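TA notes, week 10

Several of you asked for a full example with nothing omitted. So below is the full record: structure tokens for the whole chain, then the designed sequence directly under it. When grading your own attempts, check the secondary structure regions first.
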């Protein structure tokens, strides 16, 4: 019998590999969810393509999403939290977790939130900012389903012993929207901190008591005041060079440090800055694509930020 449809090629008689939104290269395994989302693992371009309602797609249709790459036209391997190397197998659990077996990385990575039903709370942003003895925790939701509210947990020094420091039960600002197709921006100030590293994580609680933990983030609280000292990064995502503007009140030297998500110091560079608005170009071609943090120190204080490398 003849096939009824084809993905990865425009028709049944072409067979060239391609790293595009509609193309494929060496597909090794597939998995499909109950609602018809198709996940295709491709070893040659180090990615997993996702097709929503795959059975209704026309021949050669575009994929709806991609994992392992920052876009549909890149196919490089990367040993990072978001990268892949020769994915050979995919599997989906009943609650929507996707597992990807990577042959060259000798590992299996897990992705949450790939199920077909909407997430109780869909986060689009979770950020931490520090000032004198205070950490501002802020997050934004895109939508909420039966959301009673949020709880905030904190761990000092990365020891993984998280303790609850705030709850929607006692703080009205942390109460959820219930069910809403429109999200909201939330904010909480933790004023019970001293100098050191802190980790924060959010837990959203549904009306039926169901709890969902979101990925934790860390921040370093300094014991010095950052006085009129700001930095600006671009482009973000970056490629071969990361540029920054250090806005100092007077001339002086700055020290630039780049860290991996694991806290490993990868680059250190000292630069003389003559004053406000001086541009500094930092070569980053030796770093793999992924997410990094940057720490800029001067006599005015310390500033931290995050950036991404995409190729």
């Amino acid at each position: 019998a003849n096939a009824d449809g084809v993905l990865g090629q425009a028709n049944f008689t072409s067979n060239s590999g391609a790293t595009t939104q509609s193309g494929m290269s060496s597909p090794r395994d597939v998995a499909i969810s109950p609602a018809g989302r198709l996940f295709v693992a491709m070893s040659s371009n180090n990615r997993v393509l996702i097709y929503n309602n795959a059975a209704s797609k026309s021949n050669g249709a575009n994929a709806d999403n991609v994992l392992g790459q920052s876009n549909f036209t890149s196919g490089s391997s990367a040993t990072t939290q978001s990268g892949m190397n020769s994915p050979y197998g995919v599997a989906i659990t009943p609650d929507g977790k996707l597992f990807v077996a990577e042959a060259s990385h000798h590992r299996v990575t897990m992705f949450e939130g790939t199920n077909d039903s909407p997430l109780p709370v869909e986060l689009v942003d979770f950020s931490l900012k520090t000032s004198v003895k205070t950490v501002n925790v802020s997050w934004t939701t895109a939508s909420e389903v039966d959301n009673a509210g949020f709880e905030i947990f904190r761990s000092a020094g990365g020891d993984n012993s998280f303790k609850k420091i705030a709850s929607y039960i006692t703080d009205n600002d942390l109460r959820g929207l219930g069910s809403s197709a429109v999200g909201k921006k939330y904010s909480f100030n933790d004023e019970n901190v001293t100098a050191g590293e802190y980790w924060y994580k959010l837990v959203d609680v549904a009306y039926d008591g169901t709890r969902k933990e979101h990925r934790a983030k860390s921040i370093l609280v300094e014991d010095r005041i950052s006085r009129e000292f700001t930095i600006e990064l671009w482009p973000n995502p970056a490629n071969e060079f990361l540029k920054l503007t250090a806005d100092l009140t007077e001339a002086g030297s700055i020290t630039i440090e780049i860290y991996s998500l694991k806290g490993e110091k990868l680059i250190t560079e000292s630069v003389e800055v003559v004053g406000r608005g001086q541009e500094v170009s930092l070569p980053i071609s030796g770093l793999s694509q992924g997410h990094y943090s940057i720490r800029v120190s001067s006599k005015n204080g310390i500033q931290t930020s995050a950036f991404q490398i995409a190729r």
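The first strand starts at residue 27 and ends at 32. Use that as a sanity check on your answer.
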